[in-house]
Design a protein that fits this description.
Rossmann fold; binds cobalamin; 17 strands; alpha/beta; five-stranded mixed beta sheet; six-stranded parallel beta sheet; pyruvate-formate lyase- activating enzyme; binds iron/sulfur cluster; binds S-adenosylmethionine; disordered N terminus; 3 domains
């Protein structure tokens, strides 16, 4: 029999029709407890993971712990900027002498907004070397206000806006220590205990059996909706792909496995992994097989950089999953996003991926929907592309959001459109028929004549239309099950988190399962040698 516990569900969520990142808004909701025990405190419930989800008591409790330090550094994306601002404000109210620095994507992308918070400094670019320089001055009591990649605020509130340091070179990246992992890290918890040490259980619940890594920085494209547009505006050299040596990244993963021997997959979050030259990928593949020999997933794949050779060498190394950005099936919309990935190139990349489907959990293609610029034809074009792409695959379907200061923000302002911004979850789609049909296609390629019956009823985002929230929820259930099944078949526990994968690993069943069901590409030595030689020639000409 299970232990008595509260079971809280939230409904009747009412939010303003539109809000911008940084706004404080009123959100009302109803909480039902269908469990067998009283809930300890209803303020445990966050709404839409929005910045306003922490109650003032939580903010106060966290801030009281933080002011025990002389220096507090915050790091946040824009979606969490409101929460960060509240924490900073409370820290400063409780102890104005605590030195506060705000870093991370938000101060880089929306610098003026972050600078308005009661901070002492914000970090406006890469932090590693800049922070080391600042810290040296801070400890020695010397003037730190000239440190680049920082803006400083004096007691009167005047802001000193310093410029940018050059981006770190590959050589400099190589000198950095591995990212902190499962060491002295603390997590704030709602349960009135405040900060608690991070345990293996936290990792299992967040990442399953996966290790999250980034090998390369940079992206050659500048899609209007992406934060990259700001990185590139700050320094055009951001377009270049910079990365550490294969030995460094392999060493990083080996270190993680020493701490957590249960790790059984690595997820690379690089923005443009496939743009790394073939010679370097071949070096990586050879060393990876030799020293790590774990499956891995590559998230940032731009269709124009997909090549058979690259796929072959990485699959041989252990790559078993790929996520590729398609965004739209309409050439007009790709042009609007300034994405130089013509549809024939997208389709040939998908065909190349299909060639390796035996060794891969189906690839996931990113698609952006709910764009008010789209016409009905653009929406139909995307559905048609999804219909004809070679299977198996799935899609990550995102609702378009405007990242402040991105080129898209200007495009939307010019078009007179005020969009809900990225505070809301990217996955909260509008329940249009177009989105329902999209998910149906991800579950099953229906006969062409059925598909053609749906198409005339599909509308553009801005057109008046009937919404289908229940249908959208229903069609997502088999889609989720299908995805979970595909991961299970490969014994891959990165989307299925918690203890299940860990227990299977511990009793040895996971290893056995993978031996029986997961296929691994083996290549004869001559083929590997040929790939290595071809790589040098191919990189020289590309
Ligand atoms: C890895 C990644 C993820 C991972 C991990 C996210 C996480 N919570 O850690 C996953 C896949 C889960 C993810 C999810 C999302 N992501 Co993401 N993600 C990235 C990615 C590719 C790299 C970020 C990273 O870790 N970089 C490595 C670290 C070391 O660098 P950094 O954070 O930039 O920090 C440096 C500086 O900022 C500075 N710094 C940082 N903090 C501090 C603090 C102090 C005190 C100092 C001095 C300096 C400093 O120094 C650091 C080293 O140079 C970026 C794109 C990019 N190229 O940055 C997008 C990015 C951050 N993601 C983005 C978004 C929008 C999301 C999602 C909202 C998307 C979604 N589908 O829902 C979710 C949010 C999930 C969540 N709740 O956190 C946007 C953020 C835009 C914005 N303005 O906020 C980005 C920029 C991509 C984009 N589209 O433009 N993401
Ligand atoms: C950071 S991108 C990296 C993917 C890869 N570099 C590519 O574009 O092919 C991750 C995905 O998030 C989605 N995304 C990024 N910015 C978005 C925005 N402003 N609104 C909606 N989705 C967005 C896109 O679908 C994108 O493919
Ligand atoms: S290719 Fe991906 S990471 Fe690069 S700019 Fe476009 S969306 Fe951003």
């Amino acid at each position: 029999m299970g232990t008595a516990s509260p079971n809280l569900t939230v409904d009747n969520v009412v939010t303003p029709a539109q809000w911008r990142v940084g706004d404080t808004v009123n959100v009302s909701y109803r909480v039902n407890n269908t469990g067998s025990r009283k809930a300890p405190d209803l303020s445990d419930i966050g709404v839409l993971r929005s910045a306003g989800s922490l109650e003032p008591e939580d903010i106060d409790l966290a801030a009281r712990d933080l002011i025990k330090s002389d220096l507090v550094g915050f790091s946040s994306m824009t979606g969490y900027s409101d929460l960060t601002r509240k924490l900073i404000t409370r820290v400063k109210e409780l102890d104005p002498s605590t030195y506060v620095i705000w870093g991370g994507i938000h101060p880089i992308i929306h610098t003026e907004d972050a600078a308005q918070a009661p901070v002492d400094a914000i970090c406006t670019g890469e932090g590693e070397l800049a922070f080391a320089e600042w810290l040296e001055h801070y400890k020695n009591g010397t003037d730190f206000t000239n440190t680049q990649n920082f803006w400083f605020k004096d007691k009167q509130g005047n802001i000193k806006r310093n410029g940018f340091r050059p981006l770190m070179s590959a050589k400099e990246l190589e000198t950095l220590p591995y990212p902190k992992y499962a060491g002295e890290e603390w997590l704030y918890s709602h349960d009135s205990e405040g900060f608690r040490k991070i345990t293996r259980s936290h990792y299992l619940h967040n990442d399953g059996l996966a290790y999250q890594a980034i090998w390369s920085i940079g992206c050659p494209l500048h899609c209007t909706f992406c934060g990259n547009t700001v990185f590139i505006a700050n320094d055009p050299k951001y377009k270049r792909i910079r990365h550490t040596s294969a030995a460094y990244i392999v060493g990083e993963v080996q270190r993680a496995r020493e701490i957590h021997p249960h790790l059984n997959t690595v997820l690379f979050h690089d923005d443009s992994f496939m743009a790394i030259p073939l010679t370097e990928l071949t070096d990586f593949a050879t060393l990876w097989r030799e020293k790590v020999n774990l499956p891995f997933c590559v998230y940032g794949v731009i269709p124009s950089y997909v090549q058979r050779d690259k796929l072959e060498v990485l699959t041989w190394a252990g790559m078993n999953r790929i996520r590729m950005g398609i965004q739209s099936g309409s050439e007009r919309i790709l042009k609007f996003y300034r994405r130089p990935t013509p549809l024939p190139r997208v389709e040939s990349a998908a065909a190349d991926l299909a060639h390796f489907s035996k060794y891969h959990i189906n690839p996931a293609f990113d698609i952006i929907v709910d764009n008010p610029i789209e016409t009905r034809q653009d929406v139909v074009d995307t559905l048609e592309l999804i219909y004809r792409l070679p299977r198996p695959f799935t899609c990550n379907v995102f609702s378009l959001r405007v990242i402040p200061n991105s080129v898209l923000e200007k495009q939307m302002q010019e078009a007179g459109i005020d969009l809900e911004q990225i505070n809301a979850n990217f996955n909260s789609l509008r329940p249009t028929l177009a989105n329902v049909v999209l998910y149906m296609l991800l579950v099953w390629k229906m006969p062409r004549k059925w598909f053609e019956k749906f198409l005339p009823h599909v509308r553009a985002y801005s057109d008046p239309q009937t919404m289908h929230p229940i249908l959208l929820t229903l069609v997502r259930i088999p889609w989720l099950l299908k995805q979970a099944f595909r991961h299970l078949r490969f014994g891959e526990f990165s989307v299925i988190t918690g203890y299940s994968g860990f227990i299977l690993w511990k009793i040895g069943l996971l290893g056995l399962w993978k031996k029986l069901f997961a296929r691994k590409l083996e290549l004869p030595r001559e083929r590997v040698e040929a790939l290595t030689m071809n790589a040098a020639a191919a990189d020289a000409t590309s």
